[in-house]
Design a protein that fits this description.
The complex is a heterodimer. Chain A is built from 30 helices and 10 strands. By secondary structure, chain A is an alpha/beta fold. In chain A, strand 8 and strand 9 form a beta hairpin. In chain A, helix 13 runs antiparallel to helix 21, helix 20 runs parallel beside helix 28 and helix 23 crosses helix 25. Chain B has a 5-stranded antiparallel β-sheet. Chain B is built from 2 helices and 5 strands; from the N terminus they run βαβββαβ. At the A-B interface, helix 3, helix 8, helix 10, helix 11 and helix 15 of A face helix 1, strand 2, strand 3 and strand 4 of B.
């Protein structure tokens, strides 16, 4: 039963449609203790945990939580993972037993997956969940009759309260006794024809591969060369016809079961009555859109500013810690490594935690209540113009606050190509870390009192940067969608599930999982990069420390600060010929290099170059230094035009190693972050040069 | 007389006769319950005119008009 050999636990796969309480049941069964597993080549996660002792299982039982799917036909990554797990391609071989969670209030849809699992032939137990909802909606289900019809045990449960879970564990424990007879159902299903070339293959697998061939998703199935060769010999029209006939045969079987247990074929949707009333407001053409805007504003506000105090606390603790380390260890190289490399690196990771946790809390609650599907329904028309699914909207919006949580948030998008397009778009959204850079440059180099009509020049320039970033993100998405990530606009085909109260415990568990995953996986890369960057900007040390305490006045051009002496500083200087066409000098080059750890670090690095201890809140000395800095010819070193060029550079440049680390984590390769970094840097450079050169040609 | 589900008016019902279009979309629509013989109702149209919300086999499914056009149907 356990394919692993060294693992005596009975492996049970938990399958089910989305929104049927499968996660609740998993958390009940395992006491919410689990590890997250992955399948090679896909980004969908499965969770695995042992059945908790409180259920007194008669033997060790491991539960594998498959992704929620409507079907096992491998058309999307979710279904491919379920398909491959059930065929024993995961760690530990095929599961000994499958538990299917179905929504008792919606048998007409849920039984389709049940029929597919009967087809598979592996021992199956049905957990007939939400019996309370079904009874309240006036469609109680006769579990015994359903069990007789399908030939498998059916256990009524209410996962939300834990009712029926003990009976389910008992039934799983009795595995091995003769409880199953799916032969009747299987005989009817396998009566539908298979192409001659596929006869002789295992019948359920042959049917699924045929469907994958019809849908053009064979690469998701891990089909063997022999299987591919057999499929390649079948004419396309025949493949499509037979795949469609299978689906129709399965639904005929569902209708037979429904009739046998005295149910209608789902012409009505009793479980949706209340939700349809709520939707009269929430998807109304006026009120619906207004509420949508309010919800999105709330979500945006939460990650943009509610996270702020928490981030401040984390930064404070990091600064306090780093100060104490400096004090305790005394000045020295090791102290610097610890305080400016390691502790700062840990800070660079932890500072994202509030935003990530808040975004996942919001997304979790919106999905759990059923509102997320409505949001996608409302906004799909606009997203479809770019070629994306309505579900891409929330991650894109979150990008204005921070790309890190936004990229993690793309996990709600089911097609991998579309997920990639969205991930490649997100860093163009003007994130909150760019704001300090814009603010410094605008306030240093533009006239604070200048107005255009009723607006100040400064606010218009800021608005321009945000508009530029939005337009660019959409354009880039459209370009990727039509070139290297070419794929048709994904079909919407989206269930609008019944509204439910969110299960806060499940959501919090998910928030914890994803945040911990970020800290563990992307965090290590960010930490390593921080240390490397610190070393680049610190070594070699100048012969004698370039002491510039209290250097409030403008640094003279000959003076060399410690940072200029470092490798990073030298690279910055070597880059000057490249920087001149975009109106920048080597000092800005060093600051751009430094900002790679996080964009807002641009400000403090520039402060270091000018020998000024920059303060987050008050950049007055630095602003003054920038404004008054003169070139060798005595003319101002920076102009409003060069500031504009630099801001445009920041709109496009992927100056954020944390983003790159997260993209690597999410795409499981360095290829995409490398493409992102190179393409964005080139684009940023070209755009900044264009702005500066055209501006100069126009006489600014 | 609707010829496809995209031609329904909100509140109207129709019986599916065939799913066209081929490839993955046909299969997906069939699997979501739009099989020939099934009665489907158009519940509402999204504010920007697309997508559409249908009731099929006990639940509500949203499809774009372009997808609904692949599903041939006759009035009940």
């Amino acid at each position: 039963m356990s394919g692993g050999g060294h693992d005596a636990a009975l492996r049970v796969a938990l399958a089910g449609n989305p929104n049927v309480g499968k996660t609740s049941l998993f958390n009940e069964l395992t006491g919410a203790r689990h590890k997250v597993g992955n399948y090679a080549g896909v980004t969908v996660e499965t969770r695995e945990g042992a059945v908790a002792a409180r259920w007194q299982p008669v033997r060790a039982i491991t539960v594998i939580d498959l992704p929620g799917t409507y079907s096992l036909t491998p058309m999307s990554e979710d279904e491919a993972v379920a398909f491959r797990c059930l065929h024993g391609e995961g760690e530990g071989g095929p599961p000994g037993l499958v538990v299917l969670v179905i929504d008792a209030a919606n048998l007409a849809r849920n039984l389709y997956l049940a029929v597919q699992l009967c087809e598979l032939g592996r021992p199956l137990i049905i957990a007939l969940n939400m019996m309370d909802v079904a009874a309240a909606a006036g469609v109680p289900v006769d579990a015994a009759a359903l069990s007789r019809c399908l030939g498998v045990p059916v256990i009524p449960t209410v996962a939300r309260t834990g009712e029926g879970v003990a009976a389910l564990v008992k039934c799983i424990g009795s595995f091995g006794h003769e409880l199953w007879d799916m032969s009747e159902v299987r005989a009817r299903l396998f009566a539908s024809e298979l192409p001659a070339a596929m006869v002789g293959h295992e019948p359920a697998r042959a049917r699924w591969l045929l469907a994958a061939q019809a849908g053009g998703t064979l690469e998701l199935t891990g089909a063997s060369a022999a299987e591919r060769a057999a499929l390649a010999g079948v004419p396309e029209a025949q493949v499509e016809e037979m795949a469609a006939a299978q689906v129709i045969a399965r639904y005929a079987e569902v209708d037979r079961v429904l009739a046998a247990i005295g149910h209608g074929a789902g012409d009505r949707a009793p479980a949706m009555d209340r939700s349809a009333r709520i939707d009269r407001v929430l998807t109304h053409r006026v009120w619906g859109l207004l509420i949508f805007l309010l919800v999105m504003a709330g979500l945006f506000q939460s990650i943009f500013s509610w996270a702020e105090p928490l981030m401040g606390v984390i930064e404070g603790v990091i600064a306090w810690l780093s100060g104490h380390v400096k004090e305790a260890l005394g000045p020295g190289l090791f102290t610097d490594l610890l305080s400016e490399g390691v502790i700062a690196g840990v800070g660079n990771v932890l500072v994202f935690v509030p935003q990530i946790a808040l975004l996942f809390l919001f997304i979790g609650l919106l999905e759990d209540t059923g509102y997320m599907a409505r949001a996608a329904f409302l906004i799909d028309r606009l997203m479809a113009r770019v070629g994306l699914h309505g579900k891409a909207f929330v991650p894109l919006l979150s990008g204005y606050a921070c790309a890190i949580p936004a990229i993690l948030g793309t996990r709600t998008i089911s097609s991998f190509r579309d997920r990639l397009v969205t991930i490649m778009m997100i860093p163009f959204m003007s994130c909150s870390a760019r704001l300090p850079v814009y603010v410094l440059l605008i306030s240093a180099l533009f006239d604070a009192d200048a107005t255009v009509g009723p607006f100040s020049q400064a606010s218009l320039i800021l608005l321009l940067m945000y508009a530029l970033s939005t337009v660019s993100a959409l354009a880039v998405g459209a370009i990727y969608k039509r070139t290297i990530l070419k794929s048709p606009t994904p079909p919407l085909v989206l269930e609008l599930p019944p509204y439910r109260l969110p299960r806060v415990r499940n959501t919090l568990l998910q928030v914890y999982d994803r945040t911990a995953d970020f800290v563990r996986d992307a965090g290590t890369v960010i930490l390593a990069m921080t240390v490397v960057l610190w070393a680049l900007l610190s070594f070699p040390k100048p012969p004698e420390p370039a002491v510039q305490v209290d250097a409030i006045e403008v640094t003279s051009p000959e003076q060399v600060s410690a940072i200029e002496y470092s490798v990073g500083g030298r690279v910055g200087k070597a880059m000057e010929p490249v920087l001149t066409p975009m109106g920048q000098d080597f000092r800005m080059g060093i600051a751009i290099l430094g900002s790679f750890s996080a964009r807002e670090v641009f400000v403090s690095t520039l402060g270091l170059v000018y020998g000024i201890e920059a303060d987050d809140e008050d950049n007055v000395p630095l602003r003054k230094a920038l404004k008054e800095a003169q070139g060798p010819d005595g003319r101002p070193r920076y102009s409003p035009l060069s500031a504009l060029a630099l801001m445009v550079f920041f709109v496009y440049a992927c100056q954020c190693m944390s983003t790159l680390a997260v993209v690597r984590r999410e795409t499981r390769s360095w290829r995409w972050p490398a493409l992102m970094f190179v393409s964005m840097t080139v684009l940023a450079y070209v755009m900044a040069v264009l702005v500066f050169q055209i501006g100069r040609a126009l006489g600014y | 007389m609707p010829s496809s589900l995209a031609d329904l008016r909100p509140g109207a019902r129709a019986r599916v006769t065939a799913v066209e279009g081929g490839g993955g979309l046909t299969l997906r629509l069939l699997e979501m319950g739009f099989v020939p013989g099934t009665v489907v109702a158009l519940v509402k149209v999204a504010p920007f005119g697309d997508p559409l919300e249908f009731q099929v086999r006990g639940c509500h499914i949203s499809l774009r008009a372009a997808e609904a056009r692949c599903i041939r149907a006759v009035s009940t």
